[in-house]
Design a protein that fits this description.
It is a single chain. The chain is an alpha/beta fold and about 230 residues long. It is built from eleven helices and five strands, in the order H-E-H-E-H-E-H-E-H-E-H-H-H-H-H-H. It is about 50% helix and about 10% strand.
């Protein structure tokens, strides 16, 4: 009996962690449709829904568990841009993924500046949204290179360290520099691991070290740093 339990425990431990998700969209039909569609994935649990950014923050402050917030970028009272800033200020460990019908660079860039991990357009297939949620949950980002370049030009100078000195002055090793370059190309940890012949765990460790050496907040800022160097 104990052997069977050991086997079951090993099987359970091999399963990816359940992603707890809050949905924020002012359109009730879209919100409920997404709740049903995303709930069909065994790796995602929709723990709450909200109609704007402030409601989302209220859910989190009330104890609703969440690893990722999937949030519309345009909502009344408190849109996704402001909502992202509020959430990241209070719960920096939670990833925010923007979902919008508007391919609006200005709003997207503002959301990324406020700490969003990326964005998707609402017209993508449901499986693409699911993959996007899993991508940001893994610590990767979803940013088109064109948006990253525009963001690099608009970001407040104090938000990332100055790059007028040699990149070597920041103490990055050759491998850390290679990982940073790959991040700026929009590659995920899995893709970086394959490109550099590393394990995903090793890539994650490198990312943590890079953030520490450059005094940056997240992968988005690593990408911007590399684009500005």
């Amino acid at each position: 009996m104990s052997e069977r339990n050991d086997v079951n425990n090993k099987h359970d431990s091999a399963q990816p962690p359940l992603i707890r998700l809050i949905l924020a969209d002012d359109d009730y039909f879209i919100r409920e449709s997404l709740k049903v569609l995303l709930g069909l994935d065994s790796g995602i649990s929709v723990t709450g829904t909200a109609s704007n950014g402030r409601e989302t923050l209220a859910l989190l402050e009330a104890g609703t568990p969440a690893d990722v917030v999937l949030m519309d970028i345009r909502m009344p009272e408190c849109d996704g841009v402001e909502g992202t800033g509020l959430i990241k200020a209070r719960f920096p460990e939670i990833q925010v993924l923007m979902l919008t019908t508007f391919d609006d660079d200005e709003y997207i860039i503002q959301a990324l500046q406020n700490g969003a991990s990326g964005y998707l357009l609402k017209n993508v297939p449901p499986e693409r949204i699911i993959q996007g949620i899993k991508t940001v949950h893994n610590g990767d980002m979803l940013i088109h290179p064109d948006i990253a370049r525009k963001l690099a030009g608009l970001l407040r100078p104090a938000a990332i360290p100055p790059t007028q000195h040699s990149i070597e002055s920041y103490g990055l090793t050759r491998m850390e520099l290679a990982v940073s370059e790959a991040i700026s190309e929009g590659l995920s940890n899995k893709e970086i691991a394959a490109k550099l012949f590393l394990s995903e765990g090793t890539v994650k460790n490198y990312v943590t070290d890079i953030l520490g050496k450059l005094s940056l907040r997240d992968r988005t800022q690593i990408a911007i740093f590399m684009l500005k160097k």
